[in-house]
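In response to reviewer comment 3 from the previous cycle, which asked for concrete evidence that the modeling workflow produces usable outputs, we include below a single protein chain processed end to end. The sequence was submitted unchanged, and the resulting structure tokens are shown without manual editing.
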Amino acid sequence: MTVDREFFMRQALDLAWEAARAGEVPVGCVVVRGEEIVGRGRNRREERQSAASHAEMEAIAQANEVLGTWRLEECELYVTLEPCPMCAGAILNTRISRVWYGARDRAFGACGGVM
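The workflow returned the following structure tokens.
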């Protein structure tokens, strides 16, 4: 099995563009198990007026629903911007095996940016 990481990051980028067109900070995310996308998300903080409506949180929630479990240890997460502390906590708690991000967030990043 050859995983096409570029394809998955492009899917996250498409979601980031969707977020930007909606007036959001342009962040998109997909959760992948094997070669299948099981969760998609984009920033919706302005739309929902919710500080927790980050792309990663939306993609993780959808993956939980699709797979019928909170445990995502067989999954990888692709996101356009380095996850913040809240999202990093959700990633750890769901046991996602690997995170791929497109850009470092020197202000809020929790995967090496500031934490």
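The CA atoms of residues 71 and 93 lie 8 Å apart. We consider this sufficient to address the reviewer's concern, and the full set will be provided in the supplementary archive.
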